[in-house]
Amino acid sequence: MVYGAVFMGAIALLGGRDFSIEWSPPYVLSLLWLAIIASVIAFASYLTLLGRIGATRAGYATVMFPVIALAISTVVEDYVWTFTALLGLVAVLIGNLLVLTGQREATRP
């Protein structure tokens, strides 16, 4: 995140943009949400998930994150689902279902 912040800061400075914080409640609350919940707590939760189910299964779980984000956006921001979004959702769900419930290949000695 530090690399991303430095990179975006450099782009902003090169583009002649200034850094300012809008002190309105929606802006401050969303900034706090992103800084605390969506970064620190989410990362700690993901590390816990890695420890409990392993990297392979946790990798498949990360595919679901955008699906959850779109579901939240549907409720909070009135996101309108398109055919391609629904097609992507179906592809993600079927892919995860196939991978997580498929038969394991026998290990060779």
Q: What does this molecule look like?
A:
With 109 residues, this protein is mainly α. The chain contains 4 helices and no strands. It has 2 domains: 21-54; 63-109. It has helices at residues 2-14, 25-62, 65-76, 83-101.
Shape: extended
Count of strand segments: 0
Helix content: over 70%
Quickly count the helices.
4
How much beta, percentage-wise?
under 5%
Radius of gyration: 19 Å
Poorly predicted runs are none
The main sheet comes to: none
Oligomer: single chain
Q: Give the topology string: H per helix, E per strand.
A: HHHH
Distance, first to last CA: 43 Å
Please, what is the average pLDDT? 87
- Overall structural class, as computed from helix and strand content, comes to mainly alpha
Domains, number: 2
Protein topology:
Elements: H1 2-14, H2 25-62, H3 65-76, H4 83-101
Q: Which key phrases capture this entry?
A:
109 residues, mainly alpha, 2 domains, 75% helix, extended
Structure in a nutshell:
This protein is an all-alpha fold and 109 residues long. It has helices at 2-14, 25-62, 65-76, 83-101. The mean pLDDT is 87.
